[in-house]
Amino acid sequence: MRNTNVRKKLVSFLVILLTLVVLVVELMPILVVITSGFKRDIDIWARGPFYFKGTLDSYKAVLSNRDILASLKNSLIVGISSTMISIVVGAMASYGLTRYSFKLKETIAYMFLTFRMLPQISLVIPLFVMFNQLHLRDTLTGIILAHISFNIPYVIWLLLPFFAAVPTDYEEAARIDGASEFTVFWKVFFPLVSPGLVVASVFAFLMSWNEFLYALILSSVNAKTAPVAVNGLLGQYAPKWGQLTAAGTIMLLPVFIITLSLQKYIIKGLVAGGIKG
């Protein structure tokens, strides 16, 4: 019995130690980015990541840079718009795929998955040509449509287990009461799958917020998003390390705020989706 207790304590200690090591490895780059935003470029370059002498010069330069501020605004508009459209359209598609029986239903569902698996680099040139013809290049509308193209398939497949797990009794009761198809979807199913909607919304927004390739190719001045603007701080001759890390820290803020404020709902949604799937 004593040997068993000692073995359990040893295993627990090793698990905790391994968790701490992984946590340090994962958080160290974020810590370096945050602290480097308060350093001078020369200190970042010559003294390494662990030397610290605080200054706000990099943040002052970033927050006075109109290009950066405009790109952050564009990223918020694109992220929120593409997320809202993707959630509504993806939820309706998931509802249709799970609650109706029709030919080629599984084929259509797997087609959405296949579209999501295609690499962005293989789609960006056709999108560039098409948007150029439609005068949507370098517009927020074009970037939003491009982001919707990879967010909707993701939302559809994430919500499928949530819609499939809703008992048919709810929709049958609603139809007996005279509810229309739209009412059944909007007032019955939408609230019931809200944990999945929260998870899908968070990940869709984060994918849109961090997306770089489409924004780089499909925008030039007017629709430039934050990742592209931050990439511009690399400079022609030498990177502006302090401003790069300061801008990167500012880009991290929405991620931290969304994740921490919705942490309970994200965990609940992921657990529920894993059980129902």
What do these coordinates show?
- This protein has helices at 2-36, 41-47, 57-63, 66-99, 105-117, 121-133, 140-164, 168-176, 181-192, 194-210, 213-218, 226-231, 241-261, 263-276.
- It is mainly alpha-helical.
- Helix 1 packs across helix 13 and helix 7 crosses helix 14.
Number of helix segments? 14
Helix- and strand-based class?
mainly alpha
Strand content: under 5%
Number of strands: 0
What is the overall silhouette?
Answer: globular
Q: What series of H and E elements makes up the topology?
A: HHHHHHHHHHHHHH
- Rg, nearest Å: 23 Å
Helical proportion? over 70%
Distance between the termini: 40 Å
Overall pLDDT score: 85
Low-confidence stretches: none
The largest β sheet comes out as: none
Q: What's this model, at a glance?
A:
By secondary structure, the protein is mainly α. Helices cover 79% and strands 0% of the residues. It is built from 14 helices and no strands.
Key traits:
single chain, globular, 277 residues, mainly alpha
Write the layout of secondary structure elements.
Elements: H1 2-36, H2 41-47, H3 57-63, H4 66-99, H5 105-117, H6 121-133, H7 140-164, H8 168-176, H9 181-192, H10 194-210, H11 213-218, H12 226-231, H13 241-261, H14 263-276
Helix pairs in contact: 1-13, 3-13, 4-7, 4-10, 5-7, 7-10, 7-14, 8-9, 10-14
